[in-house]
Specification:
Shape: elongated
Number of helices: 19
Strand content: 15-25%
Low-confidence stretches: 1-27, 395-401, 559-564
Number of strands: 23
């Protein structure tokens, strides 16, 4: 049951409880309950089973212990003689009722719940045992729900404990539809938002088409999601969408006609069942593909990608390439982009399949990758600024100096450098990729790569677009130096990210290595001016980079290092979030990382502004910030629960309302309107 549903139903039942007379009014008694004891004369020191025989009116239904997305279970308030104790109420195997996408676990028609009373020893025969119990429950039709109350009473007498034949047969019939203990422990695993529960069940035992796993552990599974049931020898594998990350899952496996088994599953390895196409929402997959395509296209205007695209486009115009050459370079550039994006996406899916909680740009949580990017971007910036020319060694010259080989390398470089960036449409698309089968996820990554390559692809295949480019001239050298500015800014940003991951020592090391590389490239440039060739400069540059990667890997992040956050913000934790919501405070929770460019832009232009701080203060809004810079797996799991593959993620929890996922691009006005919205 959702939190909102629980609160609503609790209030309704509480209201009914405060007005017991009203609960018995004519027209509200839509479900009657009869109290029956298995024996009216239980022996002292024994147990007696009490049955609650519920009979809803036609068209009405009652609820299982876990009611599903809505509803309420039965609440009992016993009044027992001294010494008697009552056990937990037990439920028979339920059925399902799906209304407008909301899953209910219910009983249609008459059903019986059981409870056990313990009779203390030492009571004299003939001792009266007056028992009363108040039952609060919810009874519904498909359109309306009514909380009702029954005040029930039964009088037992201590005796010989004999059970009559008629009463035994009646209880035996009721017990037949109760879940039996399975006796063997099941296992479950959760990966990519999909839960797989492997339940020991003999291959020779029959199951019906209605086989279904009813979860008792609240929030463990997505109740409304379809369940796929497959057999693997003596295992029954239930596959469905996960609802959280539980430590264990309890529930009932229904195998047909009211027959079921109590199941307790613990975390463990569960083989992936063969997947079919029937369970794939292809319309959602196509929407995610479109979002990834559009998101990749937008990446081209990011400061780290735009200079590379511009230079490649101008070099195409300058070279006066033929139609065939232009198309060849466009296809090679596209191949470089797509292959890198697919490789990163495939690696991410592989790591997740292995149990790691990683998202897009997962590699940026590693300081070695950040340092490598820093030195790479610095080299590009110095090249654009004219410090040296990109004259590669002979062994690589044929591949990267120009033509299709150079276009391929340029595309691969653009895709790799673009990974710190995200933008509109990308978050939802990549989040969908995590919950879809791997081959559909790869299709979405393909869309991202095609979107990133699309501008250059169009230039190669549409001559009219190439003719719109400015004519080659001296201005190109000036433009090239201007383009070095955003690349230098990108290098500064990466140095800052490195500091966030490794502290001041790591940032100092990174800057020192950057200076060393700049000196090597300056020497290279001087040699090129004199016509002395590259010499050993490239080898020294590689040596500096390798030494830096090795050195930075030994630096640990200081404990005090933390993300910059809005004023008054607290570190995010699910416990703190629950506490703030219990206090009745609205909460704005955002998830960021030092390497996320979009996150930092939103923080500087919207979240950390005085206007937003004032609006949040006036509205008593609590702010929680989750720093995902180092890829914390707990935060990763929480982010996944909101169908996101990474940051940024912005959540708004209004006072007493359901949480809302905000867009990935925020404005100051959007945030200031939240407290009053």
């Amino acid at each position: 049951m959702s939190k909102f549903g629980f609160v609503l139903m609790t209030l309704l039942v509480g209201f009914a409880a405060a007005m017991p007379g009203a609960a018995q009014q004519a027209g509200q008694d839509n479900l009657t309950v009869e109290l029956v004891a298995e024996t009216d004369s239980p022996a002292a020191g024994s147990e007696v089973t009490i049955a609650f025989v519920a009979t809803p009116d036609p068209g009405w239904h009652g609820y299982w212990k876990n009611p599903g997305d809505a509803g309420l279970d039965t609440r009992l308030d016993w009044k027992l003689p001294a010494g008697l104790t009552a056990g937990e109420l037990r439920y028979p195997v339920p059925t399902r009722l799906l209304i407008s996408g909301i899953m209910n676990y219910v009983y249609k028609g008459s059903y019986t719940q059981l409870a056990t009373l313990k009779i203390p020893a030492g009571l004299a025969t003939g001792t009266a045992l007056p028992i009363t119990v108040r039952a609060d429950y919810l009874v519904c039709t498909d359109e309306v729900c009514v909380p009702e109350t029954e005040n029930l009473a039964i009088r037992l007498t201590v005796g010989d404990g004999v059970i009559s034949g008629e009463r035994r047969a009646r209880f035996d019939a009721w017990r037949r539809v109760f879940p039996k203990p399975l006796g063997s422990e099941a296992k479950f695993s959760i990966a990519d938002g999909v839960a797989r529960i492997a339940i020991p069940y003999p291959a020779s035992a029959a199951i019906s088409d209605e086989t279904y796993f009813y979860p008792l552990t609240t929030g463990a599974l997505n109740y409304a999601a379809p369940q796929k049931v497959t057999r693997d020898g003596d295992l029954l594998v239930i596959e469905t969408k996960a609802g959280g990350t539980p430590q264990r899952i309890e529930g009932v496996l229904a195998v047909g006609a009211g027959q079921g088994f109590s199941v307790t599953a613990v975390s463990g390895a569960v083989a992936v069942a063969a997947t079919g196409e029937a369970g794939i929402d292809w319309s959602a997959a196509l929407i995610a593909f479109g979002g990834a395509l559009l998101g990749g296209l937008i990446l081209n205007v990011m400061p780290c990608v735009f200079p590379i695209l511009s230079l490649k486009a101008l070099s195409l115009a300058k070279s006066g390439a033929s139609e065939g050459q232009a198309r060849g370079e466009a296809l090679a550039y596209t191949a470089g982009v797509v292959l890198v994006v697919l490789a990163l996406g495939g690696l991410m899916l592989g790591l997740r399949a292995g149990g790691a909680s990683v998202g897009w740009a997962f590699q940026l949580t590693d300081p070695r990758v950040i340092l490598l990017l820093l030195l790479l971007v610095l080299g590009i910036a110095l090249n654009l600024a004219g410090l040296f020319e990109m004259m590669t060694p002979r062994f690589a010259g044929r591949l990267a100096s120009g033509g299709s080989g150079g276009a391929f390398m340029t595309g691969a470089l653009a895709a790799f450098i673009a990974t710190p960036c995200t933008g509109p449409f990308m978050g939802a698309a990549l989040g969908a990729a995590l919950v879809l089968p791997w081959y559909v996820a790869i299709l979405i990554f393909l869309g991202l790569g095609l979107g990133l390559a699309l501008p250059f692809l169009l230039l190669g295949f549409v001559p009219a677009l190439r003719r719109m480019l400015p004519k080659p001239g001296a201005w190109m050298d000036t433009f090239r130096k201007i383009l070095s500015v955003p690349m230098f800014l990108t290098a500064i940003a990466l140095a800052w990210v490195l500091g966030g991951l490794t502290g001041v020592n790591g940032m100092a090391l990174g800057l020192t290595l950057a200076l060393a590389l700049a000196v090597v490239l300056w020497v290279l440039g001087r040699r090129q001016v004199r016509g002395a060739g590259n010499g050993a400069a490239w080898a020294v540059a590689v040596l500096v980079t390798a030494a830096g990667v090795w050195l930075v890997s030994g630096i640990e992040k200081p404990a005090a290092a933390a993300a910059t956050a809005a004023k008054g913000a607290e570190p995010f934790s699910e416990t703190r979030l629950a506490a703030l919501r219990a206090e009745g405070r609205p909460v704005f929770a955002y998830f960021t990382a030092d390497w996320c460019v979009t996150c930092k832009v939103n923080e500087k232009t919207a979240i950390e502004t005085d206007a937003v701080a004032s609006a949040f203060k006036d509205g008593n809004v609590a702010v929680l910030v989750g720093d995902w810079t180092d890829g914390d797996p707990a935060l990763g799991r929480f982010i996944e629960q909101h169908n996101r593959a990474g940051v940024p993620l912005y959540l708004w929890y209004p006072k007493g309302g359901e949480p809302r996922v905000l867009p990935q691009v925020l404005t100051q006005g959007m945030l200031t309107a939240l407290p009053g919205g």
